[in-house]
UniProtKB/TrEMBL annotation:
Name the record gives this protein: DNA-3-methyladenine glycosylase II
Source superkingdom: Bacteria
Native source organism of the sequence: Comamonas terrigena
Keywords recorded for this protein, A-Z: DNA damage, DNA repair
MF GO annotations: alkylated DNA binding; DNA-3-methyladenine glycosylase activity; DNA-7-methylguanine glycosylase activity
GO cellular-component term (any): protein-DNA complex
InterPro entries assigned to the protein according to its UniProt record, in alphabetical order: Alkylbase_DNA_Glycosylase/TA, DNA_glycosylase, HhH-GPD_domain
Keyword Transcription recorded: no
Length: 219
């Protein structure tokens, strides 16, 4: 039996306005989330940072261990005492960024990202009105940003409610463990499970991640 609205956790102040409505829907529609959601009271997906910093950090963190990514990020920030902005990054020397531990490819990606912002190639002010796929198309035109990174941006920066990151390893693992007794799952399996989540796939995904990790996922 689904928990009544009074039994559901009260969303924290930082939660998106839709969080309570999404949780109410999910506990009615999905047996796994009916069990999971009450286990994490006072928690919700949290937005932080600004657009450029969020995307830059995702590039720095690509294909390296979390500890190495954190160290490289700190070294990069140390080169920018006035703060990380597109204009400030473009003033850095390539050699300095390389000394911070960044590969030549990541330096190129960061520069391309900064150029997109400084030359107004992105419709930042219009993102609030643009649909998810249009924003993904715009972001993936930047070197070094793939669909997964764009989807994380939609979820954690723009707080879009219905993102289903099919390439996310954590989501695949969580669905495997919670719905298929640990058996490997395909994209089709994920889509089938997520039919009951719509239009709140972002919220459901966050709780599936939360079931695997003692700390809330952030990007």
């Amino acid at each position: 039996m689904a928990p009544s609205p009074k039994e559901l956790p009260v969303p924290p102040q930082h939660a998106a306005a839709y969080w309570a409505e999404a949780c109410k829907h999910l506990v009615k529609k999905d047996r796994v989330l009916r069990r999971l959601i009450p286990q994490y009271p006072g928690e919700a997906l949290m937005a932080h940072g600004d657009a450029f910093v969020t995307l830059a950090r995702s590039i720095v963190g690509q294909q390296v261990a979390a500890k190495s990514a954190s160290a490289q990020w700190k070294k990069l920030l140390a080169l920018l005492p006035e703060g990380l902005t597109p204009a400030q990054l473009l003033r850095l020397k390539v050699d300095d960024m390389r000394v911070a531990g960044l590969s030549a490819r990541k330096v190129d990606y960061l520069v391309d990202l900064a150029v997109h912002f400084t030359e107004d190639r992105l419709h930042v002010d219009a993102w609030g009105e643009m649909d998810d796929e249009s924003i993904i198309a715009e972001l993936t035109a930047i070197r070094g940003i793939g669909r997964w990174t764009a989807e994380m941006f939609l979820m954690f920066y723009l707080l879009r409610p219905n993102v289903l990151p099919l390439d996310d390893a954590g989501l695949l693992k969580g669905i495997s463990e919670n719905y298929f007794s640990g058996e490997a799952v395909s994209r089709s399996d994920v889509r089938e499970v997520a039919e009951a989540w719509k239009p709140w796939c972002s919220v459901a995904t966050w709780y599936i991640w939360r079931s695997l990790d003692p700390q809330p996922v952030t990007y």
